[in-house]
Structure formats: C-alpha cells, structure tokens
Amino acid sequence: MNPHLALLQPYPFEKLQRLFAGVTPPGDLPPIKLSIGEPQHETPDFIKRTLTENLSGLASYPSTQGSDSLRQAIAAWIGRRYGLPAPDPATQVLPVNGTREALFAFAQTVVDASHASSNHQALVLCPNPFYQIYEGAALLAGAKPIFLNTVPEHGFALDFDALTATEWQRVQLVYVCSPSNPTGKVLDLASWRKLFELSDQYRFVIASDECYSEIYFDQGAQPGPPLGGLQAAKQLGRDDYRNLVMFSSLSKRSNVPGMRSGFVAGDAALIKQFLLYRTYHGGAMSPVVQAASIAAWNDEAHVRDNRRLYAEKFDKVTPLIAQHLDVARPEAGFYLWVSVAKFAPVADTDFARELLRQYNVIVLPGSFLARESGGINPGANFLRIALVASVDECIEAAHRIARFCQKL
Ligand SMILES: Cc1ncc(COP(=O)(O)O)c(C=O)c1O
Q1: 79-120, pLDDT tens digit by residue?
Q2: Which domains does the chain have, with CATH numbers?
Q3: Which atom in ligand 1 lies closest to the alpha carbon of residue 97?
Q4: CA of 184 to the centre of ligand 1 (A)
C-alpha cells in the first residue's frame, strides 16, 4: 500500500460527524446547514438545457486537452474578466473536472520527491487555515506540507517573511487561495510582487486557487472584482506567467458543483507537463460537460444575479451576527469567518456542538480547517459560516446564533 495514504488527516466533515455524534437537535426547529461550501442557488436553466441538448457527446471519448472551442471560450473569458490579452488557448489553458482534482493532480505533476531525507524533503507551502486538498496533494506527492498562518492581527494576509531561507530553498510548490476559503482575504498586488520575487529566487511553482473569484460585491463603492494571479503577473510585467498557474471553476460562479467543470491557465511549460500527466491519469472532461461549460463561461448575467443574492445575505446576516460576535463582511467569497474568542474557554468545537444541540444550526469549527503551526491553531476560536442556504434561512440562522450568544 502507498505509505503516504496513512499520513492523510480525516476530512473536516468527518471530524464534524464525530463532534456531533450523540447530539439531538431540537425537533421543533428545522435544521439549517451552513457548514459545507456547496452552492445552493439554482443552476441556470440554459446550462441544464445545453447539457441535455448535447447528450450525443456521450458517444465519443474526449481528448484530455478538451475541445478547441472550450479552450477558446475560457481564454476569452479570462481576457474579459481580467482585462488581459486572452491567453493562448492552445498552450496556456486546460479544462479540468473541477479545481479539486486539478489542485491535487498538479502537485503530483510538479513535485520532485527524489530527495527523501528529512533535511531535504520537498516542501509544499499552504495557507493555514486552508482547503484540505492542498495538504493531501502534498503528502501523496511525497512532499511535506508546511503552513503559513493567516491571523486577524495581520488582516489574514500571508506573511511570506515567516519562512527561513533554508525552508524557501526546499519549497517546490506554493498554494495560495484568493479569495480565501475561509477568510475571504484577497491577495493584493504587493503580496503577489513579493511571491513572484521569491518564486524567481527559489524557483518554486505557484498554484493560485481562485475558485471563489466571481463571488464578490459589485454594487456601489465596493472593491469590485478580486485581483487574479494572471492579472497581477501581467501588471508586474510577467507576460509569460512563468511558474504560475491559476485554477478556476464554474462550481460557485455558475452554481454547478455537480457538473465538475473548471480550468487551469498560465505558464505554458507547466500546462504542457500537466497535460502529459493528465493524459495518463485520465483527466478528460465529458463532451457534454464541455458544451455546457462553453455556454456558462460565455454568459455573465447569471453570475451577476448570483452575486446579488450573496450580497443580500451578507448585508442582512452580518450585522445581526456582529451584534454578538467579532465578524466582518469578507472581501469576497461566501463565508463568514467569525471569531468566538470572546466566549473562551468555550472552544469553537463546543460552540458548534451546542449551537446544533440547542438551535439546529450547523456551522464548521475553524480549528477543523487548520493545523497547529508555530504553536497555534490559527482556526481555533473561529467558526466558518457558509452563506449558501436561502436568504430567509440564513437570516433565521443569524437570529438563532444571536439567541444562543445571549445565553452563553
Ligand atoms: C478553496 C477551494 N478550492 C477548490 C474547491 C473545489 O471546487 P471545485 O472542485 O468544485 O472547483 C473548493 C470547494 O469547496 C474550495 O473551497
């Protein structure tokens, strides 16, 4: 058996199941589930229609590279979204079956684990708290994950100075998540500049997970669309996107998490190797999904509607929770990252369990999304609340959380 499998941690939702074992929620309150980052808004009809109109695609094997028309649609979307010359659809874009599998597979492509001794073992840098796939990908690639804590004292920014030069020398891959799951923090241009400089100096690859990029606030004097990795590269004169690959997805943008459709784009040399890896791994996208994906990337009206719904939820829910807990509207994404530190020694896990027991609201303890690093678990004393349920359910959940806090 692959020995690295034994290094994998239980997934946060397994931990949640264990935490909630034996808890009986009140029967008179309907459950409200805000723990999983699964979009619940309606899948647009035109996407469903395009899927059913293209069922003939089931009769053929797709190529791993995907159709020219899909890669062209994605390249054109990148150009429009980020104000860039469209990347070359032949060499700089690749469809993937959602970012999850791609974020995992990318580490298997990039990491050279041939230096197995512990002093030289390859390092993969992950934000902390983080999307759990990064860690599993690093471990199964034979690397050691190391973590950069993102904490409120530093506005949840990544502090690249926290690593020593010796550590940087061993780093082969850096995952960044912008907008961040769970904090909502967007990497700014200064952070990108620093990261690119480090990448030039130490020759590591950057995997930029941008699957929440389209969930932002675009009304009034809001910050608007989050800066993307390719956009930052271009602004800093890195026209070849060297050592950078961005990961994006339709799951959250278009409410199709079950369709499994996303893309990677960036450095042509990396994409070429990734295509080679995927050819053997079997990463081709169904032609049916390719057709629906083209339709989705070509339409923005449904994405604006989607954003409007999330903005309404944040506008209504955040002030209700902020009366009792330390929370601010995120820069982007659909999570509230809520501090429950004021109720210490009640831990985030106790808070989540009791909230379920007394009010039938399910949220995720922040400590489940982070690892102990530098003597702290930076997710401890936080809750991640995914505003994925309906507007009314989210408001009802906020009222129940408020009542719970008043009793604590
Ligand atoms: C940070 C982050 N990256 C990637 C994904 C994977 O999304 P998908 O595979 O649907 O594109 C998720 C899903 O929740 C996520 O939270």
Answers
A1: 999 999 999 999 999 999 999 999 999 999 999 999 767 778
A2: 3-42+302-407 (3.90.1150.10), 45-299 (3.40.640.10)
A3: 9
A4: 14
